[in-house]
Amino acid sequence: MIKLGITGGIGSGKTTVCKHFAQLGIPIYNADERAKHLVNHQKDLQKEIILHFGEDSFINGEYNKSYISNIVFKDSQKLKILNHIIHPYVFNDWESFCFTHQASPYVIKEAAIMLETESKNTVDRIVLVYSPIELRIKRVMLRDGIDETLVLNRIKQQMPDEEKMKLVDYIIYNDEKQSLENQVMNLHQLLTENPN
To answer: What share of the chain is helix, strand, coil (3-state, %, to 5)?
Structure first.
């Protein structure tokens, strides 16, 4: 079974691409969603976050996302600390997911931050979902209801696409010019017909 990573900058359309793979029956592991779940349910993980970021990290047992985001998106060192705390829990969760779906020809791990972290070592191949920056800004502003400055701050925290392109095995272009469906189908055929 191939472990396929799908990554891309904020607003690139990773989730949209993953939905196309899901329609083909491929199991999808959304690392960001699972991280949120683990943060809200794993007591040991909560203790570690509180230790580094203070009691305000949780309000009545619920993760205080705006408080943490305010800290980590202004300080790359703090973001590294947060990722260092959460990632081991996500890695273990991902391993369980792979074990559960081992009959599938491949499984997908969707993660915004993959190439920047040890997450890249938990997959066999990596797909970058590439989208022009103007489109990404527009999508995130619409999706999250935030202004351009905030979107740009988040983009600056991530590795530039030009660097990512050199480190991946495949690129899917989500530029509203090329068919996503065709690109996904071509990659699906490649992975199922030539698994090596």
So the answer is: 60, 15, 25
Report d(CA 192, CA 196) in Å as an integer.
9
Q: How many CB atoms lie within 10 A of CB 134?
A: 8
What domains does the chain contain, in order, with CATH numbers? Answer: 2-193 (3.40.50.300)
CA separation (Å) from 6 to 103, 118, 119, 169? 20, 14, 11, 10
Whether the predicted model's global pTM rises above the 0.90 cut: no
CA 56 to chain centre: 25
* pLDDT single digits (tens) 49-104: 999 999 999 998 889 999 998 998 888 899 889 988 998 999 999 999 999 999 99
